[in-house]
């Protein structure tokens, strides 16, 4: 499994010591505002177990995100394969989730750019998507900063949410290998 580094960040395999701070992050209502609900410790731990298995199997995935200077775990950023059927799947998605204390430092953008470079480089992908609830404007701004384009015709109702749920409607962003390579 590859580790990625940026000027300030390390994207790495998960450690056992990450479970507790990740569970705290997933239990934070502010962090989970654009998800159906905060996660229990059991659900959070199970999520890390699945992430670790995906990283081992694919060689890429949702890397644990660490501040290089301090060694502090601050969340995840990386690439995953959505596990639901939609008009744009199968696909590889880029995503992130950071502890509230890490917000506003440009970490999500910095780590996402490293993830895109890996996706279009060693992973050999032709396209990467991202999606979020229409209400999640901070994540949409990250998508725009990393060069993704909103595919308005691709917006969708998330199939895992009940019709009428406040987060049901999702926006879809895309970036192709060609778009990535043409960035200046």
From TrEMBL:
Alphabetized GO MF terms: acyltransferase activity, transferring groups other than amino-acyl groups
InterPro entries assigned to the protein according to its UniProt record, in alphabetical order: Acyl_CoA_acyltransferase (IPR016181), GNAT_dom (IPR000182), N-acetyltransferase (IPR051531)
Protein's UniProt keywords contain Cytoplasm: no
UniProtKB keywords: Transferase
Signal sequence, start to end: none
One family name in Pfam for this protein: Acetyltransf_3
Spans traversing the lipid bilayer: none
Source organism, top-level taxon: Bacteria
Domain N-acetyltransferase as annotated: residue spans: 9-178
Protein name: RimJ/RimL family protein N-acetyltransferase
Organism of derivation: Kribbella voronezhensis
């Amino acid at each position: 499994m590859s580790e990625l580094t940026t000027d300030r960040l390390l994207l790495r395999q998960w450690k056992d010591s990450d479970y507790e701070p990740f569970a705290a992050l997933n239990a934070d209502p502010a962090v989970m505002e654009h998800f159906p609900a905060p996660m229990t410790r059991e659900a959070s731990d199970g999520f890390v177990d699945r992430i670790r298995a995906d990283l081992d199997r694919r060689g890429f995935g949702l890397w644990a995100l660490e501040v290089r200077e301090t060694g502090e775990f601050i969340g995840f950023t990386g690439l995953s394969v959505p596990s639901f059927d939609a008009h744009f799947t199968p696909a590889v998605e880029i995503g992130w989730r950071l502890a509230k204390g890490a917000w506003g430092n440009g970490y999500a953008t910095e780590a996402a750019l490293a993830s895109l470079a890996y996706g279009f480089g060693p992973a050999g992908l032709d396209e990467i998507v991202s999606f979020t609830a229409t209400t999640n404007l901070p994540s949409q701004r990250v998508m725009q900063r990393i060069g993704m384009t909103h595919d308005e015709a691709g917006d969708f109702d998330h199939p895992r949410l009940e019709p009428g749920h406040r987060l049901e409607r999702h926006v879809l962003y895309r970036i192709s290998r060609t778009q990535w390579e043409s960035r200046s």
